[in-house]
Amino acid sequence: SINEGLITPSKVQYVAKGFNYRRPGYEYSGKMKVLKSIISLNYLWNNVRVMGGAYGCNAYIFRSGNIYFTSYRDPNLTETLKVYEDVYKYIENFEADDYDMTKYILGTISTIDQPLVPRMIGEKSDSNYFSKLTYEDIQKERDEILSTNKQDIRAYSKLLKDVMNEKYLCVLGNDVKMNASKEMFNKLINVFE
């Protein structure tokens, strides 16, 4: 793996870590979109943004298999990576009642089923065509989202542990933090020389 530390004269970091979950044999499900919402809005928000002081953070999980977590304007580096690596523990013990699960599901559905103007309908149709996504694929994803429960979310704990055990990361940040953690990088690059 190529783990890069990109050194800039900044006081904050932009920390990203991820992998492709298809490599170890996992398959895509619409339930992963609900998982993404829970990780972004609960786990990362509370641990990276609220407690860690980063300006922002997010989780990304794609049908292609790519999954990664990011932070931006983050005062931390190793602490944030530890939060990413421990996400599986949070998901393994995930708790939500029916009301909370309904909120997560509605929030997730609202990102895929929105009113579109004709231009956006055309763009979405083109994208689906070139991605070879059929109406049946999209409906299957919708059904998977709508049927997600807390046991489904907990079942992703192993996938998250396997993915975060892979050492694929990239950090843009200040030289003091980068050099203090240089053993985790294959290379450190001064962006502005």
Describe this structure in words.
The protein is α/β, with parallel strands linked by helices and 193 residues long. Helix content is 49%, strand content 19%. The protein contains 9 helices and 6 strands. The chain has a 6-stranded mixed β-sheet. Helix 1 packs across helix 4 and helix 1 crosses helix 6. The radius of gyration is 18 Å and the shape is globular.
Give the structural class.
alpha/beta
Cα shape: globular
Distance between the termini: 25 Å
Count of DSSP E strands?
6
Number of helices: 9
Low-confidence stretches: none
Biggest pleated-sheet summary: 6 strands, mixed
**Overall pLDDT, averaged?**
94
The amount of helix comes to: 40-55%
Topology pattern, helix = H, strand = E: EEHEEHHHHHHHEHE
Physical arrangement of strands within the biggest beta sheet: 3-4-2-5-1-6
β-sheet strand percentage: 15-25%
Rg over CA atoms, rounded to whole Å, is: 18 Å
